[in-house]
Amino acid sequence: MIPRVLGTRASEADRWTSLPERGTPASLRVIAWIAEHIGRTTARLLLYPITFYFVLTARSARRTSDEYLKRLRGKSPYWWDVFRHFHCFAATILDRVYLLRGEFERFRVTVHGKEILHRQIESRRGSILLGSHLGSFEMLRTLGVMQRNVPLKVLMDPFHNQNITRFFDALNPTVAGTVIAPDRPDTLLRVKESLDAGSFIGMLGDRVSGGDKTTQCQFLGAPATFPAGPVLLAATMRCPVILFFGLYRGGTSYEIYFEHFADEIDLDRDRRAADVQLWMQRYAERLEHYARLAPFNWFNFYSFWD
User: Fold this and answer.
1) CA distance 156 to 300
2) Are strands 253-262 and 241-248 parallel, antiparallel or unpaired?
3) pLDDT at residue 306 above 90?
4) CA distance 63 to 19
5) Whole-angstrom Cα distance, residue 155 to residue 152?
6) What does the pLDDT look like over 132-169, one tens digit per residue?
7) Torsion angle of alpha carbons 88, 247, 131, 95, nearest 10°?
8) What is the dihedral angle through the alpha carbons of 297, 250, 94, 98, rounded to the nearest 10 degrees?
9) Which pTM value belongs to this model?
10) Angstrom distance (rounded) from CA 104 to CA 99
11) What is the pLDDT of residue 214?
12) Do 51 and 83 contact (CB within 8 A), yes or no?
């Protein structure tokens, strides 16, 4: 279990966990059949009516998209901006089908900062790979695992959005097998064993789950609640941290960015909470930087700000 030292604000910070799951097993199977038998071009055309349907019916997500885009741009977005936001999310979900099927040749992927990742692999020292719900973490996850050039385990909750999780897990059991569930008695042990073996531990730093300890950061001009877990875990394991952002650029194009974040995180006992906040604020600033680079890649469709 990840150590906890800060205050919990679960009633506010984990609002996303109470949102209903919208993908049914039947609808997901239809998407997979279309992707496999009709092809990506036709499947992408079908995303337009699907996106239009969700823009009309997903009122809460539509409001939060509007709020996010307004904060990002400093003015109210037009309805087609929200549509584009939803469509970008739908496109990455569709692409996940092809990625999990190993069809990497469909995509043009540009990697920035890959020397940072390669140096860490060559050192044979495990590291935390800290990502977000900005863009596609799946791009790294599938490429790394399937091509076996990035030893990666992923710390994530497999029980939220279970229909979607089971659907994608069935497409590629090998990738599904890299998941380490949080808040289990053996979570820390499994993480440490993976790090000692030189693996990366992938985790996302921009969404709070129930019971997580949290910290307040400025993000897009207003206070928002971020999880303290990534910093606490890195400090406990005394391992390096590398930031990862996989941005969808439209069509078949993705850009992957790696950034050095910390060789090691050391938390002063007398100012532990302040140190955690400082590190997570640095993360929030880099998240904001990439959100401005690819504004429609933000996939936290719930009220994020306090």
Assistant:
1) 16
2) antiparallel
3) no
4) 14
5) 10
6) 999 998 888 777 766 667 788 999 876 656 667 777 77
7) 60
8) -120
9) 0.88
10) 6
11) 93
12) yes
